[in-house]
Design goal:
It is a single chain. The protein is an alpha+beta fold. The protein folds into 3 domains: 9-237 and 401-454, 2-Layer Sandwich (BirA Bifunctional Protein, domain 2), CATH 3.30.930; 253-382, YbaK/aminoacyl-tRNA synthetase-associated domain (YbaK protein); 471-566, Anticodon-binding domain (Rossmann fold, 3-Layer(aba) Sandwich), CATH 3.40.50. Strands 3, 7, 8, 9, 10, 11, 12, 21 and 24 form a 9-stranded mixed beta sheet that branches. The radius of gyration is 29 Å and the shape is globular.
Length: 568
């Protein structure tokens, strides 16, 4: 393609609204344009990248035995009410009514629709396993859309759903998708890591996230160097402590701690380290029950783990008025001693502690030498804290390392959550009515494009992995001389015949402008054609990723580029 014939409205300055690299560079390179908060138009360069990612996904999904379908973006409310998610999903679910006042939603995901299709069309175990996927626009009404395509309201997603006759075959389907995802992200040229993950709103018994490693990632993952264990920080397991205190219980003491509300303040005031203090966090459950969660002073509570223990969907920290009502003290002085009619659960690290410090349930007061069982009762001890770098791996005890990542894919083993709710049954080989075992598998297509930029860029612009680059080669004639233009035209046609995707910057612009735009757009190879080089019988090929410059004869350029592109 010729630049003069393609809509590529590049920008010289960074857009004010762009907060992260991918958003900034996609706007500057003319790949996307904002329509409304979290909603974008894909311009030609951006759409070329999206289509390439989609093609890789299609090839690998088909290879894994999945069948492509296309479901409607609007879903009737009655399907969502069958699973209970119409109310559970909250305000992220964009709802609307048709002219007959019937409720619909814009699908953020399609478990209900695919399960309804299954129960209508599948009768026998002979039709299983079944795996259907689609690539479609989704909508989630994010409260604060930000970061361009990374957290938009409208986005492109591949979602797949498997149905199996039993748990064993469901795990086979799950593994096929897991393997397909590894091939997809490898082919996209991404540095990624699969990690154990929480199931969240989707539900199910097992899931893995596929994380693109990037310093700008919002997610923290913990992994074992040289090992197989990796999990996002919300899911990562923490082993029970091995150092259990053998100290003898000391008498309970009350101490005045005026204005000392934080762990840091209390420890400094009492000349203690945080591991000698226990924090009492009061949470409110969806049914308005108050639960006290205890964690060591140097640890942080993991609300997902607490939710899992309590069997709740979403807990929130109790507001200051409720804390005062329950404890008779302001925030910062809550403690488990003397709490009445309140469930108390504690992280497993608290179980081995002796003579620790807690809030005194009175203003400016703490208790010293507190001990479990003697001074208060814990209903359950469990792994309730956030794992962190340096914690021992739950597989080998080796210390865990941390990295930042961007979630681009997620696979779930759902079990019977949706098939049971919606009656998605089939007749087994004994003629018995049996619930299908389901899995679901998502890839954020537009997010994958943005994540690639977060991982592949420099100060000048994007550095696309070749498989998903909008073009392979950027032709850059630097003068309008007849020799330069003829050489460029000949090479342009030669590259097209070799099926190399090429963008010819045929604008009447200064060389510096062309070079800057080429670096911004980030094609893997830049070919500079100038009078000076041609007088010496050469043109210059720059490797965008490494900056390496190679001089070759114009007649050899297509062969050189073909060989390098074929090796990638």
């Amino acid at each position: 393609m010729r630049t003069s014939q393609v809509l590529i409205p590049t920008l010289r300055e960074d857009p004010v609204e762009a907060e992260i690299v991918s958003h900034r560079l996609m706007l500057r390179a003319g790949m996307i344009r904002k329509v409304a908060a979290g909603i974008y138009t894909y311009l030609p360069l951006g759409l070329r990248v999206i289509r390439k990612i989609e093609n890789i996904i299609r090839q690998e999904m088909n290879r894994a035995g999945a069948q492509e379908i296309l479901m409607p973006i609007l879903s009737p409310a009655e399907l969502w009410r069958e699973t209970g998610r119409w109310d559970f999903y909250g305000k992220e679910l964009l709802r609307c009514q048709d002219r007959h006042d019937r409720d619909f939603c814009f699908g953020p995901t399609h478990e209900e629709v695919i399960t309804d299709l299954f129960r209508r069309e599948v009768r026998s175990y002979r039709q299983l396993p079944l795996n259907c996927y689609q690539i479609q626009t989704k909508f989630r009404d994010e409260i604060r859309p930000r970061f361009g395509l990374m957290r938009g309201r409208e986005f492109i997603m591949k979602d797949a759903y498997s149905f199996d006759r039993d748990e064993e075959s469901a795990r086979v389907s799950y593994q096929k998708m897991y393997d397909a995802y590894e091939r997809i992200f490898t082919r996209c040229g991404l540095n990624f890591r699969p990690v154990e993950a929480d199931n969240g709103m989707i539900g199910g018994s097992m899931s893995h996230e596929f994380m693109v490693l990037a310093e700008t990632g919002e997610e923290t993952i913990l992994y074992e160097e040289g090992g197989t264990y990796a999990a996002n920080v919300e899911r990562a397991e923490v082993l029970p402590p091995t150092d259990v205190s053998t100290d003898q219980p000391l008498p309970l003491e009350t101490v005045s701690t005026p204005g000392m509300k934080t762990v840091e303040d209390v420890c400094k005031f009492l000349s203690l380290t945080p591991d000698h203090l226990v924090k009492t966090l009061l949470y409110q459950t969806p049914d308005n029950t108050i639960v006290a969660v205890l964690v060591r002073g140097d640890h942080e509570a993991n609300e997902i783990k607490v939710n899992r223990l309590l069997g709740t969907t979403e807990i929130i920290l109790a507001d200051p008025e409720i804390v005062t009502k329950v404890t008779s003290a302001p925030v910062g002085f809550a403690g488990p001693v003397g709490l009445k009619n309140i469930r108390i659960v504690a992280d497993q690290a608290v179980q081995g502690m002796k003579n620790f410090v807690v809030g005194g349930n009175a203003n400016d007061t703490h208790f010293l030498n507190v001990n479990c069982d003697r001074d208060f009762q814990v209903e359950t001890f469990a792994d309730l804290r956030q794992a962190k770098a340096g914690d021992p791996s739950p597989r080998t005890n080796a210390p865990l390392s941390s990295a930042k990542g961007i979630e681009v894919g997620h696979v779930f083993l759902l079990g019977t959550k949706y098939s049971e709710a919606m009656g998605a049954n089939f007749l087994d080989d004994q003629g018995k009515d049996t619930m299908a075992i389901m899995g679901c598998y998502g890839i954020g297509v537009s997010r994958t494009a943005a994540a690639s930029i977060e991982q592949n860029h420099d100060a000048k612009g994007m550095i696309w992995p070749t498989p998903i680059a909008p073009f392979h080669v950027h032709l850059l004639p630097v003068t309008n001389s007849e020799l330069v233009q003829e050489t460029t035209e000949t090479l342009y046609q030669s590259l097209i015949e070799a099926e190399i995707e090429v963008l010819w910057d045929d604008r009447d612009e200064r060389a510096g402008v062309k070079f800057n735009d080429a670096d911004l757009i980030g094609a893997p190879y830049h070919v500079t054609i100038g009078d000076k080089g041609l007088k010496n019988g050469v043109i210059e090929i720059k490797h965008r990723r490494t900056g390496e410059m190679v001089k070759v004869a114009p007649s050899e350029a297509t062969s050189y580029l073909s060989q390098h592109l074929a090796s990638l």
